[in-house]
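Raw record, unedited: MmpS family membrane protein
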Amino acid sequence: MSDARRGAPGTAGLVLGGLGLVFGLIPAAGLVAWPLVVAGLVLGVLGVVRARRGRGGHEGVAIAAIALSALGLAVCAAWVVLFGRVASDAQSALDDLRAQTGEGAVLVYEVTGDAAGATISHATSTTVEREVAGLPWTKEFTVMGGFRGGTLDVTAGPDGGTVTCRITVDGVEHRTATASGPHALASCSD
């Protein structure tokens, strides 16, 4: 077997390690670089082992293959760390943005009037119906995200009377409505 063929693993490792290093420097080419540097490292080690056992080849070429491949592997690993950090920072920034826009708003539904009885229906994401014997009635809760309103309907009982609904968000009135008479409906929607 010729000396050139005996040194083939070290030479192949050098070529693959060099290509892997070049591709490793290009961020998007990292998928190609990983297998090249790993193959270059394996072939470089094989070349050193063969040269030390006297089976031919140039030990220096094989050592250079190991060095280039290790450097290429380090570059690929650095890209992984960098991309991981960037992704983590982006996620943190997105979480901060969500927290800023989603601090929550205090939503208050109020029903007042002189009706002896009333049916109150209010909704944000689900509808809840309540029979109320007397007024006033108030419901306060915190809503998150971009949602800043809802629906509040009040119907006077069969004995009539006046009913008024009011929706406030963070202390600012958004809607108010008044109705009078038996089964009169005051509707506040935002």
